[in-house]
Amino acid sequence: MRCCSWLEPPELEFPAMKRFVVLLRFTDNERRLEVRPAHREYLRSLHEQGKLLTAGPWADDTGALLIYQAADEAELDRIIADDPYTPETWSRSPCAASGPRSSRSTWLDHGS
Q1: pTM for the whole thing?
Q2: Which of 1, 38, 68, 95 is the most buried (most CB within 10 A)?
Q3: 13 pLDDT above the threshold of 60
Q4: CA distances (Å), 41 to each of 30, 35, 59, in order?
Q5: pLDDT digit string (tens) for 17-73?
Q6: Residue 83 carries which DSSP code?
Q7: How far apart are CA 25 and CA 6, in angstroms?
Q8: Beta-strand (E) ranges in the chain?
Q9: How many other CB atoms are there within 10 angstroms of residue 43's CB atom?
Q10: What is d(CA 79, CA 46) in angstroms, rounded to the nearest whole number?
């Protein structure tokens, strides 16, 4: 037994989740503003479930950045399809994905 091993956090088991960065560009501002309260409530529920890490509009309100956590792109597509914002109100740019890391791993360990 190593000295002070009790200080180390326990190894945690996490499902293999990926993070997806999604960029939106708003297209139909009138319709989008009508459904914005429902959209925000939907995002709040995703955040509580651990499926949305962060989100926010651009300063000029022409689009937004969202970071989701999902098992794969198919799950991400389902999450986005259920959003009150519809394809008529925004367009989605291709997303970037990052795979899971160890629970003891941090962004500092990877230099990113």
Answers
A1: 0.69
A2: 68
A3: no
A4: 19, 10, 21
A5: 899 998 888 888 888 889 999 999 999 999 999 999 999 999 998 989 999 999 998
A6: S
A7: 49
A8: 18-26, 52-57, 63-70, 90-92, 96-98
A9: 21
A10: 9
Residue 2 has pLDDT above 50, yes or no: no
Query: Is 20-100 a CATH 3.30.70.1060 domain?
Result: yes
Q: Which two tokens stand for residue 70?
A: 């999902």
pLDDT tens by residue, 63-110: 899 999 999 989 999 999 999 987 767 777 656 666 655 444 444 444
- Count, in order, helices (H) and strands (E) of the chain: 3, 5
Distances in Å between the Cα of 63 and the Cα atoms of 30, 32, 66, 67, 82 are: 14, 11, 10, 14, 19
Q: Which of 105, 90, 5 is nearest to 55 (CA)?
A: 90
Q: Provide the token pair at 17.
A: 């989740």
Would you kindly state where each structural domain of the chain is located, as residue ranges?
20-100
